[in-house]
Amino acid sequence: MNKVNININNDVKINYDILVRSGLIKESGKLVKEVLRGKRALIVTDDIVDKLYTETVKESLEKENIITSVCVLQNGETNKNIESIYNIYSSLAKNELSRKDIIIALGGGVIGDMVGYAAATWMRGIDFVQIPTTLLACVDSSVGGKTGINIKEGKNLVGAFHSPKLVVMDSDVLNTLPKREFNAGMAEVIKHAFLFDKKLLEYLENNNSFDMDFILKRNCELKGHIVEIDYKEKKERMFLNFGHTIGHSVENAAGYGVLLHGEAVAIGVIFAIEYGIKKAITKDKSILERAKNIFAKFSLPTEIPTNINLKDAIKLDKKRSNDEINFVFLEDIEKPLINKVSINDIIDFL
Q1: Residue 92 in contact with residue 68, Cβ under 8 Å?
Q2: Are 103 and 91 in contact (CB under 8 A)?
Q3: What average pLDDT does range 43-53 have in this prediction?
């Protein structure tokens, strides 16, 4: 068993484990029982994942005498909205889940974000467990306690901080992912490697087959460390927004579902490096070529689509303060830097 412990003991006290191992989903019932204070669980999943893994998780839970119900939502970023949250609330009510019971997020980042938000607000807070089934959810949304939903004006503008009691990562589930979704998940791994671990970056550059248990564990160690020291994103956690200022804006302006989140992040990372070179913050220009090459290796886009207008989308970025934004640059690999820049300066560079 590969285990990463997240222990936050500053402005909040949070402790949970991220467990990584092939075949782990079959043991989910036993693992959930260790953190369950009540007797009921609601599995929330989507209509695609439901056909693949719901029965396995449900049987495992019921084997441990956990009263289990299921809520199936429509797949996709366009369904990450208040209507889906209401459906979760309705299932929680109909199945009589109390504050001592637990919700299980079985799916990708969309399901994880929505379940986390529903858990944060149901009866003012209920426990939940993440069982991510996409690479992106494993390496990004399931680690760190950020939850949220989209509204038509922007991505994740409604949300809350609410950490899971446990994260169960089964690397075998990645075998069912379409290649495009796997590659999109790798964009976040690459981002973390540029930010914090040049050896991980070299591993990704120099190999064509990967030990996914190693990648999942190492990625969670990197992101988990940042979450531990800055849970509420006052300083260091802002580094994780590398590539996201433009990434989220591209994703929003293109229309949810046109670009996958990881694809938009890849575009945003390239923009951030180019912007850093222009402002003489990124001194080593070869970093740009390395970034383009590693993203190309995973068939990820690196250019902003020409048919979208980013101006309004950038202005809605939730990291904005008045007409400025905290923008994450890369001085060098493993050396992120945050500078305040004006929205207009970004738009001019575009």
Answers
A1: no
A2: no
A3: 97
Q: How many helices (H) and strands (E) does the chain have?
A: 14, 12
**Block residue for tokens 């579902």:** 257
Strands of the 2-9 sheet, one edge to the other: 2-9, 13-20, 166-169, 127-132, 102-107, 40-46, 67-73
Helix axes 212-229, 179-196, angle to 10 degrees: 50
Smallest CA-to-CA distance from 142 within 246, 18, 53, 235 is with 18
Report the greatest alpha carbon distance in the chain: 61
- Which long-range contacts (C-beta less than 8 Å, at least 24 apart) are formed by 332-337? 332/282, 332/283, 332/284, 332/287, 333/194, 333/198, 333/201, 333/287, 334/195, 334/196, 334/197, 334/198, 336/195, 336/239, 336/242, 337/281
**pLDDT at residue 257 in the model:** 76
As a whole number of angstroms, the distance between CA 40 and CA 209 comes to 41
Q: How far is CA 131 from CA 6, 28, 193, 262, 327, in A?
A: 16, 8, 24, 19, 32
pLDDT in tens, 109-151: 999 999 999 999 999 999 999 999 999 999 998 998 999 999 8
pLDDT of 324 over the 60 cut: yes
- Looking at the DSSP assignment, which residues form a beta bridge with residue 259? 256
Residue 321: pLDDT over 70? no
